[in-house]
Amino acid sequence: MFKRSFQSKDRAGKSVKPSKRSFRDHQKLKLQQTLDSPPVGSTLTSPIVTLVVGHEPRIFAAHENVLSLSPFFAAALKGQFYESSAKRVELPDEDPRIFSCILEYLYKGDYYPRLLFNKRHASFELEDAQDLQNLGGRGSVEPTICIASAGGALLKDTVIYCAAERYGLDELKRLALRKQGLQSGITVDVILRSARYAYDNTPDSDSKLRAHYLALIIRSRKTFKRSGTMQLEMEIGGSKLYASRLS
User: What separation in angstroms does the CA of 108 have from each of 22, 23, 27, 66, 213?
Assistant: First the structure.
C-alpha cells in the first residue's frame, strides 16, 4: 500500500485572497506561452528592429512582428532593408519615456501603472495607486510628465493618447483615456496645458478626448474661474476652444 506523499498541512491552510488582475492579464499569458514554445514565424523568430528615439537618441529594440501591430510601423518597415538584418527606424521627435510606454503596451497589452479590476469594489483602479510608502521608480504613480516643448508638466496619459493617435493604436487610446479618468488632484495649470496639447496633437474629429476635457473643466469651473492660470490661458488664447462652456 502506497502512503500519501503529502502531509496534512498541505491539505488545509489559510485561504489566499485572489489578487487584483489586470484586464490585460490574458494577453500576458498568451505572450508567456509564446516564450515557452515559439512556433515557426512567431514573434521570437521575427527580425529585430533598432529604434533611435529622441533628440538625445536613446536606442530601443523590438521584434518586427510586434511593431507591425501599429499601422505606422507596419508601413515604415514594409520593404525597408527587406533583405538586411539591420532594420532601423528613427523617431527624433518622439519622447523616449513615452515610447517606452508604447513598446510596453505592444508587448504586454498595458503600460505602467496597469489598469486593475478590484473585484471587491467592482471597479477599475491604477496599480500602486494607494502605495504611499513606495515613492520612487516604478512603484510610484506619477500622473504627469514634463515636456519642454509644451512649456511644463502634462498629464502623461494625454501624451500617450496623442502618441497612440500617431501610431494608429485605437485600443491604446481608449486605455489611456480610461486611465486618465481615474486621476485626481490635478492642478489647474496642468489640466489647461494638457488640454491645449491634446487639441494641438489630435484631429478635430476626435470627439472623445475633447469631451473628456470639456467634462473635466466643467466639473472644476469654480476652481478655474478663481485661478490666475485661467486668466493667463484666456490671454494667450489657449482656452478659446472651451471658454463658452465656463459661462
Answer: 11, 11, 7, 10, 28
Whole-number Å distance between alpha carbons of 207 and 138: 32
Q: At what angle do helices 188-200 and 156-167 cross, to 10 degrees?
A: 10
Among 174, 172, 241, 175, residue whose Cα is nearest residue 213: 241
* Residue 62, φ and ψ in degrees, nearest 5: -150, 155
Strand pairing category for 87-91 and 48-53: parallel
Query: Is residue 118 a contact partner of residue 177, using CB atoms and an 8 Å limit?
Result: no
Distance CA 63, CA 47 (A): 6
What radius of gyration, in Å, describes the C-alpha atoms of the chain?
22
Whole-number Å distance between alpha carbons of 160 and 139: 19
Crossing angle of helices 188-200 and 228-236, rounded to 10°:
20
pTM: 0.73
Burial of 182 (0-12, 13-18, 19+ CB in 10 A): middle
Amino acid at 37: S
Show the low-confidence residues of the chain (pLDDT under 70): 1-44, 79-85, 129-140, 222-247
- Give the model confidence (pLDDT) of 136-183 as tens digits: 334 457 899 999 999 999 999 999 999 999 999 999 999 999 999 888
Cell digits of residue 101: 510606454
Q: Which residue has the cell 529594440?
A: 61
Phi, psi (deg, nearest 5) at residue 12: -135, 140
